[in-house]
Amino acid sequence: MTVALRSPCLLEALIPVDNAPVDVSLKGDFRKYLEGLQEVENVGIKRQAEADHILSKYENALPIRQFLLTNLVKKASSDLLGVRIPIRTLVSSLDRMGDFPFKDPHEARFTGPTLFVRGTNSHYVADDVLPVIGQFFPKFVLHSIDCGHWIISEQPEAFRQGVPGVQHHMLP
User: Which residues pair with 82 in a beta bridge?
Assistant: First the structure.
């Protein structure tokens, strides 16, 4: 969304997934996910199954753990798996990570087609922010999927089915 508002000429269309152009408090889950990934990094593992076992202490839902596991990569210098994201940086930025850099929709606007996909059990794209979304993204369409925040992991088929159909109508 930030790229679309800063440099709208770079995009033809936009599909934000369970995010809105407002400041929001991140749920406590993010901190525990980072703690789990940090433990994976510290232990030194060779197989995803080992990482999944560690992450199961931090998250019960398999689809969310599977999403977190996509952050693992083989380290160049050994046969161990490492975490590709900068965990320490994310932990130190966590309190501000839910901040949105634009506050005034009259100063920045993306007029291209925009599909907002939200999870109905997530608080990140609540009904009360839809007017703000419309101010920043006046050509937005809303697509709701019955799930939480991790839409692509929790409901991959519903996401695949819902997005391409709407996307086809969005693009010229």
Answer: 73
Instruction: Give me the count of residues in the chain.
Output: 172
Dihedral (CA of 79, 48, 17, 129) sign: negative
Asked if residues 125 and 114 have their Cβ atoms less than 8 Å apart, the reply is no
**What mean pLDDT do residues 33-53 have?**
94
Residue 168: name the closest of 133, 137, 141 by CA: 141
Give the CA distances from residue 26 to residues 53, 135, 172, in Å, rounded to whole numbers and listed in that order.
25, 23, 35
8 vs 57: CA distance, rounded Å: 42
Residue 117 CB: number of other CB atoms within 10 A?
Answer: 22
CB 66 within 8 A of CB 153: yes
Alpha helices in the chain (DSSP H): 2-6, 29-43, 48-55, 62-69, 87-93, 130-136, 151-154, 156-170
Per-residue pLDDT reduced to its tens digit, 90-149 = 988 888 888 999 999 999 999 999 999 999 999 899 999 999 999 999 999 999 999 998
DSSP state of 44: -
Tokens of 29: 């889950």
* HSE-up (13 A, CA, CB side) for residue 57: 11
